[in-house]
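Researcher: Final request for today, and then I'll write up notes for the group meeting. The sequence and the SMILES for manganese (II) ion follow.
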Amino acid sequence: MVSPELTVDVSPQPWTGRFDGDGAEHRRWWQAVSPYAPGADSADIPQKASPANSAEVPAVILGFASDEGVRRNKGRTGAALAPAAIRSALGPLAFHLDRTVSDAGDIVVSDGALEAGQVRAGHAMTAMLDAGHLTVVLGGGHETAFASYLGVAGSDAVRGGKRLGILNLDAHFDLRDEPLPSSGTPFLQMAGAEAAAGRAFRYAVVGISEPNNTRSLFNTADGLGVRYLLDEDCTAERVRAFVADFLAAVDVLYLTIDLDVLPASVAPGVSAPAAYGVPLPVVSAVCRQVAESGKLLHLDVAELNPEFDVDGRTAKVAARLVNTLLR
Ligand SMILES: N=CN[C@@H](CCC(=O)O)C(=O)O
Ligand SMILES: [Mn+2]
Ligand SMILES: [Mn+2]
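Model: Predicted protein-manganese (II) ion complex:
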């Protein structure tokens, strides 16, 4: 198999964390993660390309260091620092995973060059997906989601006819109709791209805050057939049933977590903190449910803003959710 090209702006940096020993029983993320080398791991061995157990699919992490989407959306910038902050929070965590994890480094969005960065990240992701990896993108503002979509939409799985579902954990629809793409527009961009590709747009959102989305955004969501649960309706039981229904209607899932879905006390380090929010145990249960479905193709975590974080609280939550999804 020919190794796919990978061009990133920042190569993988060393991971750090507490050292308890070299043995497997002492292993933490910083000891387990290796630099991504296209073609080097078991995913490229044909008989291992589709492991029977989805918990053994190798994962690869890619950072999307971008402030431009939030800047264009008139929010508080700082999310470009998030990939490094999430890696720092992941590094010391005990490693209980059955899969390998590698780090491909970062795509860096320079001022104004959002669209080009999204395309570059998408290409890198598609190559990783087609080599048999579970891809994990660390944003960036929620403009990260359109980069993720480009990667997923270009994959053999989706081009080959697998029904794609996009599940967003978010206080916002991010269906804004604006002249320029931003952190507020990615899912309307996806709706247009899916229509152009002749595919159904399957988009569901858990955690919508009614006072933080205008009537116009609700109308757009209704017009596109978007399924959603309001934050106040997010009991564990209702969320579980909602996610199960959505999963049943798709073959592969792209899960995107906008950390502002969580209460501001749990996730203060975001551009737009949530006054209400979905409790962490409910969000964590969704992650477990998605992981156990075996349908997870790609995930990303967006909107962490380390400049407004408190004691790294939001970064730690992001790391914990990534760990749960890969477990
Ligand atoms: N990523 C997008 N976020 C929200 C921001 C809302 C706000 O700033 O209040 C949106 O565009 O709706
Ligand atoms: Mn969002
Ligand atoms: Mn949001």
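Model: Residues 44-49 have pLDDT under 50 and may be disordered. The two ends are 29 Å apart (CA to CA).
Researcher: Thanks, that's everything.
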